Structures are given as structure tokens and as C-alpha cells.
Amino acid sequence: MKTLNATLAALLFALIFLQPLSAAASEPAILVIGASFSEAKVPFDDNMVAPLGGISVALGSYLSLGNALVKDPRLPGYVINEAQAGATSFDRSSCNPGPACVGEWQGYEKQLQMALARVTIPVSPPIRNARYVVITLGNDCLHSDAFGIPQDQTTPCDYAQMNAYIDRLLAVGQQALDASIIPVYDVYPPYSTLDMPSFQAAAGLYWVASEANYNALRDLHRTRLQAELPGAVVLDVWADFEHMGDGLHPSDKTTRKAATMIAQFILDHP
């Protein structure tokens, strides 16, 4: 009986959604996962608890990459954005300002699962209305509130921890490829375009990545993604980076440039 009910449900989904999907197949949705470069908002749970009290980047006056892709005039605006401001590649609690850790972020694997569910008809084989997922950089190893434990118990990432972060990015990219979705990764902005000490002061962080650690992470991120995940795309969308004044987050102009580069790639590789 359970098998029959599942089959009937799948048929119902197909009847409801297959016709509009066939009409929209030439313009599939773009999936987006990541952290604050992709989304301004942190997540609330069912009890209305959120990291950082629920605040959004720049109190909402911020153009995220997800929104910029919606607004790009050459794209249809079909974007499923499951990114979460402040997220890391793994699930974690927020421990800023402390001492207690409250509020939860979902990591990239869960974000991808949610994004895929939005565009999938659960038949066999699944029918998905998406071709690309944009995966932007996480907070991993960038600062003292990126570990899910009290800040005073954290230390800057060593090389093994950086590699573990890249391993998680590779894993989620492979999950996308297994679902016939092409992952599109960004490249970290040059350190010289940031002001990490100012961001540390503004965010109340115990520490931020040093220039040497940041550059090691940036190089590792770019080289491993390019070398170890055939079928993935790595775009240097933040090459001409300007921060919005807080030391870290991109200005509207910068985000629009990034969206333009991604849009052009998608249009050139439909």
C-alpha cells in the first residue's frame, strides 16, 4: 500500500508540474548555495531563534549575489537561493557574541538538498528543472565564529583544517554532478581588496584570518577545485573586488559584476 501511495503521489506531481516544466525547460532555474556573498539573511528555526539575533547584512541594504542573478536583465530571474548569511560548509551554532552558542546554520550539503528539492519531480528517474548550482565561499577558517564552539576556544585553521573544508566543498560539488547539476564555484577576492581588521572590529570577533592564512586558503581553494572535480566550473568573479565599507562584503557594483560574469557563462553554455 505504501508503494502504491508513493507511486500515485509521483503521478500526481507529474500531472501538476510536467506541463509547465516542459514550457520552461529552455530557461531552467539557477540554484544558489553558500554564505553571505550569496544571501543577506541568517536562518530562523521553528522557535524563532537565529544566529546573530536574526540580523541581515547591512540591515538589508545589501545586494547579494542571489538577488543580483534575479535582477540580471539577460536572465529570466528564476533563482532558487538556499544560501545563508554566516554559513560554513558544515552545520554549526553561532557563538558570537557568546558565551552561549545559539542559533543554527545549515551547511552546504543540506542547502544543496533543499535547493534540489525545490526543482525536482520525484519520479524515477527524477526530473529536475535546473542545470547549474552556484556555490560561493563559506566562513570556514575566516574568523573565530566559524567553528560552532565558543570563540575563546578557537585558533586559526592549520593546513589540515583548510583541506578538510575544501574536501567538503568537493563533496557537495560531486553531489551536484551526481544529480546532473553543474557546480559553479567562485574564487576568493584578493586579500588586498579586503580590510579584515575592520571587519573583525565591526563583527566583534576574537580573530580573523591573517594575510598568510587567507592567501593559503585562497590558493588551496582555487587549485584543488580546478584539479579535483572534473565537470565543475571555477570563475574568478571577485577579481575586481570592492567591499561595501565593512571590510568584507562586496559592494553592489562588485556583486553586479559577479552576476554578469556568471550569467554570461550560463548563456554561453546552455
Instruction: Give the name of the CATH architecture.
Output: 3-Layer(aba) Sandwich
* Rg over C-alpha atoms, rounded to the nearest angstrom: 19 Å
Q: How many runs of DSSP E, i.e. beta strands?
A: 9
Percentage of β-strand residues: 5-15%
| Helical percentage | 25-40%
Gross morphology: globular
> Largest sheet, described in full?
5 strands, parallel
Return the structural class. Answer: alpha/beta
CATH superfamily (homologous) name: SGNH hydrolase
* Uncertain regions spanning at least 5 consecutive residues: none
What is the H/E order?
Answer: HEHEEEHEEEHEHHEH
CATH topology: Rossmann fold
Report how far the terminal alpha carbons are from each other: 41 Å
- What's the helix count? 7
Number of domains: 1
Q: What is the level 1 CATH name?
A: Alpha Beta
pLDDT averaged over residues: 93
Placed side by side, the strands forming the largest sheet appear as: 2-1-7-8-9
Structural commentary:
By secondary structure, the protein is of the alpha/beta class. The protein has a single domain (27-268), classed as Rossmann fold. The chain has 7 helices and 9 strands; from the N terminus they run αβαβββαβββαβααβα. The protein has helices at 2-24, 65-71, 108-118, 159-178, 196-203, 211-228, 252-268; strands at residues 29-33, 79-81, 92-94, 102-105, 120-121, 127-128, 130-135, 182-185, 233-234. The strands form 3 sheets. A 5-stranded parallel beta sheet has the order 2-1-7-8-9, sandwiched between helices. Helix 2 (65-71) packs across helix 7 (252-268) and helix 4 packs parallel to helix 6. The termini are far apart. The mean pLDDT is 93.
